[in-house]
Amino acid sequence: MRIKDTFTKQDEQLFIKQEQAINPPIIRRMFFLFAVLYAFFAITDLIYYPYDWQALFIIRFVIVIPLFLLGIVLSFKRFWVAHHQYYVAFCFFVGGAGTAYMLILHPENMVYYGGLFMVYFSGYLLVKLRFLHAMFAGLAILLFHFVGHMLINDDFSNTFVFGMTFYLGANLIGLVGAHQFEVKNRKQFLHEKEIQHIHDELKLQYTEKVTQFNQLEQSIRENKELIAKNEALDRLSKSLQESEQRFKTLHNASFGGIAIHDKGRILDCNQGLADTTGYALEELIGMDGLQLITPDSRERVMHKINTGDEKPYEAYGLRKNMEVYPVRIESRNIPHAGKQVRVTEFRDITELKDTQTALLKTLEQHQLVLNSTSSGIYAIDHQGLCTYVNENTVKLLGYENRAALLGKNIHALVHHSYEDGTPYPQDKCTLLRALESKDLVNVEDIIWRKDGTFFPVSYSSSPQIEDGKVVGSVVSFYDITERKQHEKALQESEENYRLLTTQMQFGLALHKIICDDDGQPVDYRFVQVNDAFEKLTGLHAEDIIGKTVKTVLPNTEPYWIDAYGAVALTGLPKRFDNYSQEIGKYFRVSAYSPKQDYFAVVIDDITEQRRLEQEREYLRLHDHLTGLTNRLFFDQQIKAFDSEENLPLAVINFDINGLKIINEAFGHDKGDKLIKHVASVLRDVCEAHCKEHCVISRVGGDQFAVIMTKTQTVKAEKYAKTIAKQVYAYSINDIQTSIAYGIAVKTTPEEDPEKLFIQAENAMYSSKIFESTSYRNNSIKAILHAYHEKNPREETHAHRVSDLCEKMGEALNMNAGEINMLKAISHLHDIGKIAIDEAILNKPGKLTDEEWEKIKKHPEIGARIIASSDEYAPIAEDILAHHERYDGTGYPRGLAKEAIPLRARITSIVDAYDAMVSRRPYRDALSHKDALDELRRYAGTQFDPELVEVFIRLFNDSSPGAG
Fold first, then answer.
1. Which of 287, 348, 699, 953 has its CA 20 to 30 A from that of 692?
2. CA 27, 29, 35, 41 torsion: positive or negative?
3. For residues 214 and 525, which has the higher predicted lDDT (pLDDT)?
4. Residue 303 gets which letter from DSSP?
């Protein structure tokens, strides 16, 4: 929708009448354009005016262009707000004056300079006028230009071309600038109109609140009038009592019922008593006055008579007709006829009681009204002390009863501090302002509760004025916590919405659906987008707002339009993940319709998430070392291939022979290399020979399985043999590699496909039984050979140790089998060093702790290598223990004394002796005698002392030889 379309006719008139400010960005662009033009003209001057070019160059680059650049800088400063029009006009007139000057110097160039002057003047008019006015001004200047050219020049051939070029240039500048200027001002006008609308609504709400407050104020005034009437009534009652006393003294006979009695017997009375009691005067004289009192009041009356009490009191009288009525009795003791008697006034107070009852009822009703209002109401005197509170005040402030507030300094109780806890001076208290101003005070502030918390209130304080003086004020207030919360919530909501749309990490966009004549969605238009949408999609708001998706992204998939159309037309929200081919990303989309034909989307880029999911899915079904599928995928595929069209279905199970030995001897890197080589062979052979479906999986550490559809046993056997042959052709450190396999084929639909793997595995293990033993034995020999090739000295050392061990065995009367095993230990005891770096083994200096720990691992490595061979397995325990010490401080298990195998104890002594008498890179060889002394020194700690004695006796006389 265009900006102008949202204007009413009245809006358009108001907008035109308004004086529009100049937008600094527009002026910056205009100044920059003219600076570039001037620089260009400086170049043309070199061609057309070579004799004046230096002066022109100085004028342009020293005066005019710096002026334009200064204008750009100033548009960023506060100066621009107050003086922009003057500066713009100055710059345009400088340019115009310079052009006019050149026109005077070179009148023959009327077309060139006259047109340029028109451009400047049109630009200046653009600053001051709307575009339409600038265009007409440009026409006038063009006409002037033509006339001047005809008067000065004879050649009119280029007049029209040059003139129209400058005219169109001027108007094009005006069109671009004025259009941007007007669009921005129209947006600003609509924004201000919306603000005015909100202001009018708030003003209406304020008027309603003022009306409610005035009604409450009227109620308070009525209550105050009622209180004043009650106070007047009390004053009247008091005045009446005083008047009665004066009247009794001056006109005794005219006051109510008056009787003179002696101990209750009436001596005399007035007509008033007769009128009050209903008795005749004759009947009253001589009557016992107690008969004029109800029986339940007589005892009290008699007590007053006997004690001579002159204080007035109330009782109940009894008329002649037995009517009971309230009576006020007041007596005076006076002398009469030579003795003390009492003059008693009987006053019928029925009307007074009725009046008091009515007054109390009225007061109760007023109190009920005051207590039933939702506002708190209290009154204070001129000192700020509380004289009245209603129940809601007590409740709002958290006090137990009114007594807790009455008579107290209200400021000290409820208004003592600001929100931050700092003291609130009483002389600045807004609650007491009415006492000074004599005006109604309406304020929003806080009030403190008894428990130390506070809450916001809106209150009014109305002064009480008597005789022109303020004697107090009545304050009414109500809790505005909820209103404040709503205001805060609205504020936060607006701020959250702003943050949501500008700073949220998810893309947010509003679109309008476009339908064909049949009502089917065929396109949609971008209405609004947030920053995150631009970042996630790579689409910029200025490039897409107002445009359709088919314009922005011509190859948009129909799915997007259909999905969004369903949301916009039905109003039902939709959530989905999909890939945008145009943008090249996966998006998670939540779409909903805020109103008919519109839809909003919240998008998130899940491209990386999808990549990770695909990667996780790949790793879930593949072996990370070889890249082949794993056992889980294999099990899924064998079920998937279980159909009659895939029969015969063959499964081949492969197992690498001696992988454990290679891992132990040469490290897992070599073992992994072998595994990857076998995987590569399986792939290559499968691609070359398998024309049907073929699945290759690594189903265990050294185990592979292959599924082949439509494959007979003969073909599977050929395939397996080809693989075994290629694996056999591969070697690691001169150790020949080999692989065992087993085949199972399903030929009928009834056979269970899941049993094929077990059948193939059983066949493979049957084959492995016949092959693995010899392979492992040969592998150990190959490992030993490889070790000796790397370390020829170790081979010589092994032969010498073997000879010495043979002699020790004979000296200990071992049988031939034991001696052969002892010799085998001698040859193989250091086979575990094959896995240790040669640099460590041959290091001339002292080993580091880390290097020493690696050296100490060789008995365990050697034992594991030996244990894998049936032939050598019996001596694995001896290999493991040949570095144990007799005192239990050796390695790797810390065995002691006879817990160390005998053959290991013998090997330990012989190995140590030969090492001492042999030269090493890090030391010279010891003599035979020194070596024997060392054996004696460590007998019982490192070596078996008895075996040391045997060795010394055996070789004491002559050295067995040293390398």
1. 699
2. negative
3. 525
4. H
DSSP letters along 731-743, please?
EETTEEP-EEEEE
Nearest to 889 by CA among 932, 856, 914: 856
pLDDT at 299: 87
Do 795 and 845 sit in the same domain of this protein?
A: yes
Distance of alpha carbon 444 from alpha carbon 463, whole angstroms: 18
Distance CA 272, CA 260 (A): 13
pTM of the model: 0.39
Contact in structure between 738 and 657 (CB atoms under 8 Å) = yes
Identity of the amino acid at 178: A
Residue 41 near residue 47 (C-beta atoms within 8 A):
no
**406 is a domain residue:** yes
Residue 697 β-bridge partners: 629, 705
| Same domain as 635, residue 600 | no
CA distance 476 to 224: 13
**Residue 774 maps to a domain:** no
Where is average pLDDT lowest: 71-85, 107-121, 678-692, 777-791?
Answer: 107-121
| Residues 647 and 754 both lie in one domain | yes
Contact 354, 330 (CB under 8 A): no
CATH of residue 548: 3.30.450.20
Identify whether residues 453 and 347 lie together within a single domain.
Answer: no
Beta strand 598-605 with 585-592: parallel, antiparallel or unpaired? antiparallel
**382-404 pLDDT per residue, tens:** 788 888 888 888 888 888 888 88
Q: Identify the residue with better confidence: 460 or 568.
A: 568
Task: State the residue range of the domain holding 536.
Answer: 504-611
CA 460/CA 442 separation, integer angstroms: 4
Are 783 and 661 spatial neighbours (Cβ–Cβ below 8 Å)? yes
pLDDT above 50 (res 1): no
φ and ψ at residue 336, rounded to 5 degrees: -155, 125
Helices (H), ranges, 847-944:
849-855, 858-867, 876-881, 902-917, 928-937
Asked whether residue 217 is assigned to any structural domain, the reply reads: no
Which tokens in the block code for residue 929? 């005698």
Q: Would you state the pLDDT for residue 330?
A: 87
| Same domain, yes or no: 413 and 538 | no
Compute CA distances 478 → 67, 407, 413, whole Å.
Answer: 63, 22, 17
C-alpha 603/C-alpha 539 separation (Å) is 13
Structure tokens at 596: 């008919």
680: Cβ contacts below 8 Å, ≥ 6 apart? none
pLDDT-derived band at 19 (thresholds 50, 70, 90) equals: very low
How many structural domains are present in the chain? 6
Q: Cα separations (Å) of 229 from 225, 236, 475, 639, 669?
A: 6, 10, 20, 102, 109
Kind and range of the H or E element at 548?
none
Domain containing residue 756: CATH number: 3.30.70.270
* Nearest CA among 112, 115, 114, 137 for reference residue 124: 137
The reply to whether 71 and 115 lie within a common domain is yes
642 in the same domain as 518: no
